[in-house]
Amino acid sequence: MKQKKKQQQQGRRERRSFSPEFKADAVKLVRSGKTVTQVARELDLTQTALREWVRRAEADAGERQDVLTTEERQELARLRRENKQLRQEREILKAAATFFAKESA
User: Fold this and answer.
1) Domain extent at residue 22
2) Is-above-0.70 flag for pTM?
3) Does residue 80 share a domain with residue 29?
């Protein structure tokens, strides 16, 4: 409760999540000629979030090369999870090798 009051005092919003359809509709409004500011105000969004949605939509459409596409972001997340798991497995194997080396000596 205190954290919620603190966020409101600082002018921060509570983090919300939106469906892909909602995001796509918001991006369409921007592409139809409305400004990011207008659409953000109409849909009660932050301009920053809406700008990011537009950037990602442009990347997915092949219009931007400086931003990862949705597919690339998903692959990167999968590879990071896999990398983390492999590191954990390596540490376990190191510990097991050390244990058995001491036991056989």
Assistant:
1) 1-67
2) no
3) no
How do the pLDDT tens digits run along the chain, 105 residues long?
555 555 555 677 788 999 999 999 999 999 999 999 999 999 999 999 999 999 999 999 999 999 999 999 999 999 999 999 999 999 999 999 999 998 887
| d(C-alpha 56, C-alpha 70), whole Å | 7
Which of 21, 20, 67, 15 lies closest to 45, judged by CA? Answer: 15
Token pair of 26 as six digits: 């918001």
Buried b (16+ CB within 10 A) or exposed e, 44-80: ebeeebbeebbebbbbbeeeeeeeebeeeeeeeeeee
Give me 71's structure tokens: 């597919």
User: Are residues 7 and 51 both part of a single domain?
Assistant: yes
